[in-house]
């Protein structure tokens, strides 16, 4: 099972969820979403852990060009919905 965790740098917001066991399949893609408070914009930290068997959870190492935070999460910057570069549905 893949566990995803989203939180703000100041710790005021913290959300966690998981994907079904066995997903995503090798070479596949699985989309996930988090419902954030209305009008929220700013930075979020995204981290992932994989449960290899019941009770054994290991952190996921990101394979990306973006620098990783010291805690192993990656920073995601959310634009305000009034920002002209924000595109709904993308």
Search tags:
single chain, about 90 residues, mainly beta, about 0% helix, globular
Describe what is shown at a glance.
The protein has 90 residues and is an all-beta fold. The chain contains no helices and 5 strands.
Task: Give a description of the structure.
The chain is mainly β and 90 residues long. The chain has strands at residues 2-7, 14-19, 42-53, 56-59, 74-78. Strands 1, 2, 3, 4 and 5 form a five-stranded antiparallel beta sheet that branches. Strand 3 (42-53) and strand 4 (56-59) form a beta hairpin. The protein is globular. The model has no long low-confidence stretch (mean pLDDT 86).
Q: What is the strand tally?
A: 5
Terminal-residue CA separation: 26 Å
**Strand/helix succession:** EEEEE
Number of helices: 0
Strand content is 35-45%
Query: Low-confidence parts lasting 5 or more residues at pLDDT below 50?
Result: none
- Rg, alpha carbons: 15 Å
Helix proportion range: under 10%
The overall average pLDDT, rounded, is 86
What's the multimeric state?
A: single chain
* Sheet with the most strands, sense and barrel status: 5 strands, antiparallel
Class by alpha and beta content: mainly beta
Taken from the alpha-carbon principal axes, the silhouette is globular
């Amino acid at each position: 099972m893949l566990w995803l965790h989203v939180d703000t740098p100041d710790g005021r917001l913290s959300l966690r969820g998981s994907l079904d066991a066995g997903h995503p399949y090798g070479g596949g893609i699985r989309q996930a979403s988090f419902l954030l408070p209305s009008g929220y914009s700013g930075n979020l930290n995204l981290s992932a852990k994989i449960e290899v068997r019941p009770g054994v959870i290991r952190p996921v190492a990101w394979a990306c060009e973006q620098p990783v935070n010291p805690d192993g999460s990656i920073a995601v910057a959310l634009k305000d919905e009034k920002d002209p570069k924000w595109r709904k549905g993308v």
